[in-house]
Amino acid sequence: MPWKETDVMNLRTEFALRALGRTVVFKDLCHEYGISRKTGYKWKERFLEEGIHGLYDLARRPKSSPHQLPEETVCEIVRFKMLHRTWGPKKIREVYFRSYGETPCLSIFKRVLDKSGFVKHRRKRRQRNPQRLTHTVKAAAPNDIWTVDFKGWWKTRSNRRCEPLTIRDDFSRYVLAVSAMEGTSYQTARVEFERVFTEYGLPNGIRSDNGIPFACRNAPLGLSRLSAWWIGLGIRLDRIAPGHPEQNGGHERMHRDIRMELQGVIEGDLDHHQHAFDIWRRTFNYERPHEALGMKVPADVYKRSKLSYQEVENIEYPQEYFTRKVASTGIVGINNRQIFISSALSGWNVGLKYLSESRMEVWFDYLRLGEIDLLAEAFICSDNPDKISN
User: Where are the beta strands (DSSP E) in the chain?
Assistant: First the structure.
């Protein structure tokens, strides 16, 4: 007879009691209950040794295993995670390997961190494929693209504003600067970029968002004084689409680490913040392995740029262009006419090229800004033909 799960304890008890009697053949009794003689002897012996409690199913897990993870290893995995709370199992495993020369498999690290409460299980989101609105340049070597942004401000314990400026090499993930600043003005940002350019050289391009001081909404092509200066140094611009920070995902991921590890936990003024930023940056560059780098640290990959920083006087254009310097008011003079271009370009030369007797193109280095209508004495932006400056 089959043993139903709901009646199993009653049947086992009944079987054990009848097996103790002398009036039944044990083989026939086992056949009656649909079990083997081996199983019948097991239940009989356990009933004699432990009583009715011996008839319950035992745990299937072995009491010991040659493959069981030692307690010391578990403690070390948890200790490394406590030191680097934002690091995942792959990075923790790499640090463990560097410390001990050998390491358990990755699945063990995942399981230990999960059972220790370090893993937050989130609902999976549907993947999106946003389109870039500007030309995308993929970094193939150090200094091909630097990514820049302001982290977003917070108040120090002395009630001062701290707004970190972050600069990062996109290929190597090397963090070039995390600078404690009180605002996003052009003057303070330029001073910091001059310091970084002097120390590391110039990149081929810089990727940024469309916020101040990297861009100006009312200027042609969104040029700001800072981005105009970059172009003057020979650096190309690569902006993400408005409202799409995920297009600069690596930089945003770094900002998340800064928020979790530094924001709101540093005592003291901006000098103390800068000291903490420098320590964090060294750990990020020289200790934290990256999966995209084959578990190398950024310092193993990054090399200083061969393009040295030298301030330029102005931009030169081919012979078929003639140049005009933009005044501090954003105006250029053409044939006794005063045409407003943009104050973001004040002090810089623009290249002008005739399209017809009354119309000419306006270029700023490699960027076509728009056209000037001499009859209307107006400048028409390339990115917004309906917008006319006069």
Answer: 145-150, 154-155, 161-162, 165-169, 175-179, 205-208, 236-239, 322-325, 331-334, 337-340, 349-356, 359-364, 367-373, 378-381, 388-389
Residue indicated by tokens 């990727």: 207
Q: Which two tokens stand for residue 43?
A: 């239940």
DSSP 101: S
Residue 4, H or E segment: none
What residues contact residue 74 under an 8 Å CB cut-off, 6+ apart? Answer: 112
C-beta of residue 350 within 8 angstroms of C-beta of residue 324: yes
Distance between terminal CA atoms of the chain? 99
Q: Do 250 and 147 contact (CB within 8 A), yes or no?
A: yes
* Domain co-membership, 216 together with 246: yes
> What is d(CA 330, CA 102) in angstroms, rounded to the nearest whole number?
64
Angle between helices 26-33 and 8-19 (to 10 degrees): 170
Q: Give yes or no for a contact between 340 and 233, defined as CB atoms under 8 angstroms apart.
A: no
CB of 371 closer than 8 Å to CB of 230: no
Structure confidence by residue, pLDDT tens digits, 322-359: 999 999 999 999 988 999 999 999 999 999 999 998 99
Let me know: does 251 contact 264? Beta carbons within 8 Å. no
Other CB atoms within a 10 A radius of the CB of residue 265 amount to: 8
Task: Decide if 308 is inside a domain.
Answer: no
**pLDDT tens-place string over residues 156-188:** 777 788 899 999 999 999 999 999 898 899 999
Output b/e per residue, 34-66; b: 16+ Cβ within 10 A.
ebeeeebeebbebbeeeeeebbeeeeeeeeeee
17 belongs to a structural domain: yes
Q: Would you say 371 and 355 are in contact if contact means Cβ atoms under 8 Å apart?
A: yes
Q: How many helices (H) and strands (E) does the chain have?
A: 11, 15
Domain that holds residue 338: 322-389
Pair 149, 297 in one domain: yes
Task: Give whole-number Cα distances, 360 to 36, 354, 385, in Å.
Answer: 100, 4, 14
In the chain, how many domains are there? 4
CB atoms within 10 A of CB 122: 6
Q: Structure pTM?
A: 0.68
CA separation for the pair 359, 371 (Å, rounded): 7
